[in-house]
Each structure stands twice: as structure tokens, then as C-alpha cells.
Amino acid sequence: MIDALGGRWGPILVAAASAIVVAGAGAWLTALGPWYRSLQVPSWKPPDWAFGPVWTTIFTLAAIAGVLSWNAAPEGPPRTWLIAAFALNGALNIAWSGVFFRLERPDWALIEVVALWLSVVLLIVVVGRLSGLGAVLLVPYLVWVGIAACLNWSIVRLNGPF
């Protein structure tokens, strides 16, 4: 179906649109209002302005990884696994912002970020079976979610209970 969307451009368009949807939904759920500003954060927390460029880079690399692996995947189960892995990861990525910022539950988000990190590992494995370069492009995502998990844990420790 993706190839029918525009031949060679289909996977690129779908990957770009998917990245924009996940990034946009996560951004929409991210509320840097009074509750967030009142949280105690560790001294090593990256500045708020850094999150946009980092996530933009990560989503760009993930979209490229998606295109590379899609183009390398034979039709059938490998493509189905690829789509499922990206869909699961996208849903968990969006959910973390909702749980942390909208529900104001960093403690629950700490549990969710473990699932998100594991979904990035799964994504690297699935993509890696199809494209070594694609898997390498996802490593910064894994590192960043690991940093986010440490930050999330620190916020829970400094501010709990919620």
C-alpha cells in the first residue's frame, strides 16, 4: 500500500508524515505551565530549548531509518513487523508526554518510559534485520530516551509522592 502512494516517494512521504504526527502530538501534550515550572529538577537537566532540536533530529533519523528498512524489507511479515514496531513506538512516545505533562504523573511516566525505551530496542532489532545503517540511526533515540528516563526518575525522587 505504501508503495502505491507514490512509488519511490511513498515510503518517504509516509515516514515524514508519521514523524510529524508523532512529534506534533507529543508537542501538543507537552505543557510547560505552572505545574511543570514548580518541579524541582536535577542540575544536569538539559535546558528546555534543547528538547525541540534534539527531538527534531531524532525524528528525522527515525524517518530515514524507516525508509531504509522499508526499502530493504520483502513484502509480507518483515514489513508487517516493521510497521508494528514503528506504530508501537510512536504510540508509547506520544503516551509518555500525556502521562507526564497532562496527567501530571511523573511516577506513572517513569513506568511508561521503560516501555518506551524497550520499544526503541525492539525498533532497533527489527530495523537492524533489514538495514544496519537504519539501526545505527536509531541509537541516538535509545540514548535520549535513556537520558529522559534518568531525568524522569530524578524528578520523581525530588518531587514525589504524586
TrEMBL record:
GO terms for biological process, alphabetical: tetrapyrrole metabolic process
Chief location: membrane
InterPro entries associated with the record: TspO/MBR-related_sf (IPR038330), TspO_MBR (IPR004307)
Keyword terms, alphabetized: Membrane, Transmembrane, Transmembrane helix
Membrane spanning stretches: 12-29, 49-70, 82-103, 109-128, 135-156
GO CC entries: membrane
Entry's localization field: Membrane
Membrane topology: Multi-pass membrane protein
Gene3D superfamilies from the UniProt entry: TspO/MBR protein
PANTHER family from the UniProt entry: PERIPHERAL-TYPE BENZODIAZEPINE RECEPTOR, TRANSLOCATOR PROTEIN
Family in the record: Belongs to the TspO/BZRP family.
Protein name (Swiss-Prot/TrEMBL): Tryptophan-rich sensory protein
Organism: Methylobacterium terricola
Lineage: Bacteria, Pseudomonadati, Pseudomonadota, Alphaproteobacteria, Hyphomicrobiales
